Amino acid sequence: MYDGTKARQPREDTPRPVTEYGRQKRDAEAELLAMLSSTPACCIAILRLSKVISPNLALFRGWAESIKSDTPVTAFSDMMLAPVPVDLVAATLARILRERRSGVFQLSGSRDVTYVDAAHCLCDAIGKSRSLVRPVLSLSTPPPVPNTTLDMTVEHSIWSLDPPETIASLSALAASFTKR
After folding, report:
1. 172 - beta bridge partners?
2. pLDDT digits 0-9 by tens, 135-144
3. By the 8 A CB rule, do 89 and 54 touch?
4. Does 9 reside within a domain?
5. pTM of the model
6. Domain ranges, residue 37
């Protein structure tokens, strides 16, 4: 939805999508917000997310399997993520539903890191050398955005919910692969 020029993107900023996916998200949100403003009794909530991570995510699961077997992996050095654990997403959605909240909510990791950094966290947790990670540049058009974090001041004021710490989230994900 945003062009990535601003870290901790405020929810009030005008969306500036740079991809078709972003344009579709912007348009869908606009429709939902129009419905909400025309029918105030209507309960419509939008939850914007940065990168949701879980042990079932094929990219990370595949990296973990390769790293465990000393097989090098490639990771983007120019693409960012601000990971948020899937269980926190589920808990936040449940809270929004239980409390019958309306509006726009945001959930994001505390800071952006590269996919190389994420792969390094996996190596550290598995006990393998970071040299197994081969940095590559993405060839995406448009180029990757430098910031993916979202402002969570509203979520903090309502629920005392702060952005999950990025490295802790990645380390917890990585630890889940060492138990397998």
Report:
1. none
2. 999 987 778 8
3. no
4. no
5. 0.91
6. 20-178
